[in-house]
Amino acid sequence: MPTYISLLKLTEQGIKNIKDAPARVEQAIKAMEAGGGKYIGFYAVMGEYDYVIIGEAPSDEAMMTYVLALGSLGNVKTTTMKAFTKEQFADLVKKLP
């Protein structure tokens, strides 16, 4: 399954209800798994973003559906990137002309 890294920023609503955040994280993990994905890791971080989520999804469409649903709740804004392992990267480089 493809791997994705999502960078999340709390919205005003999300920070206002920060005490509910741990339960929201658990709900988000369950939603990812319900869509056929696999949770790999969650990190609360300091800096430009507030959270980092690493997960797998069966397709780009499945991941897009998940992050749209997550964002529609109004607690976070998401930036999601498809990630490639070092082995996948090496295979891609081998294909270069």
Q: Brief overview, please?
A:
The chain is of the alpha+beta class and 97 residues long.
Describe this structure in words.
This protein is α+β, with helices and mostly antiparallel strands and 97 residues long. The protein has a single domain (3-94), classed as ACT domain (Alpha-Beta Plaits, 2-Layer Sandwich), CATH 3.30.70.260. Helices cover 42% and strands 30% of the residues. The protein has helices at 12-16, 21-34, 60-72, 86-94; strands spanning 3-10, 38-44, 51-56, 76-83. It has a four-stranded antiparallel beta sheet with strand order 2-3-1-4. β2 and β3 (51-56) form a beta hairpin. The longest helix has 14 residues, at 21-34. It starts with a strand and ends with a helix. The model has no long low-confidence stretch (mean pLDDT 96).
Question: Strands, helices and their partners?
Answer:
Elements: E1 3-10, H1 12-16, H2 21-34, E2 38-44, E3 51-56, H3 60-72, E4 76-83, H4 86-94
Antiparallel strand pairs: 1-3, 1-4, 2-3
**Structural class assignment:** alpha+beta
Strand content bin: 25-35%
- Main beta sheet: 4 strands, antiparallel
Computed CA radius of gyration, to the nearest angstrom = 15 Å
Keywords:
single chain; 97 residues; alpha+beta; Alpha-Beta Plaits; four-stranded antiparallel β-sheet; 42% helix; 30% strand
